[in-house]
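Researcher: Let's try something more involved. This one mixes different molecule types, so please make sure each is placed in the same coordinate frame as the others.
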Amino acid sequence: MNEPSVERPILLLRETAARIAPVRGTPVDEVLAGATDSFFAAESPLGTVYVAVGQEGVRYLDPADSEEDFARRYRRRFGRFVSPAQGDEVAGLAEKVASALAGERVDVPLDLSRATPFQRRVLHVVKGIARGEVRPYVWVAREAGTPGASRAVGNVMANNPVPLLVPCHRVVRNDGSTGSYAFGSGEKVRLLRGEGVEPEEISGSPYVATPTTGIVCHATCRNARRIQPYNRRAFRSVRSAVEAGYRPCKVCRPVAAA
DNA sequence: AGGGTGACAGCGT
DNA sequence: TACGCTGCCACCC
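Model: All components are placed in one shared frame. Result:
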């Protein structure tokens, strides 16, 4: 605690805690302990990101410019302090996060306790979108149990506390265009390419069917990818495919209703 | 034909 | 409250 080489975020933190303590009538150390979360840095496709840890797991991930910048943003968003993790307090979690950000399929515990029920449902759905695949906002809305809420889903994505870990960059528009991204639409396209999704394969015809089965899929559905080129029928919408006699795939569940 | 555009419904915050 | 990483349709060339 009394290291001579006090880092700047910690110094700021102590100063603030020292201001708060007398107001609350609480010892400084207690204020510090009760209002401070830990963070660590990790490498990701977005570059260096900082990762804050809550009670249940990762609470916040941000490709901030610096540790100071990250701490500021965290404080503004959660109303709590954050300082670099000491010793090995988050070592296990940091390892999982590093693996996940490297593209491995590891389950990273998340702390979404600050999210609304709707946000939690949406984030949970999006977490399940596999690498190499994309799904439209309207699909996420339907899967989350609120079929009309595709725009509200966009709002949740815009405020995703844990980008990359909850892969909001895999949520695209229903017309096959990639849509916006909190860190820029170009970054979204780059991320998707890095995962094997070429924007061209969905643009204009995000749905694909085959007469051999009579089924229509999202173009990036693992089953759609197996369709032989000469059996491949491209569609701009599920509706047009259904009108042509195809029924929705039971694996990727394209939204059939108007 | 099919890509672009504008209006507006619709949802949660 | 008004707003937004949308969807859908009408309408344009």
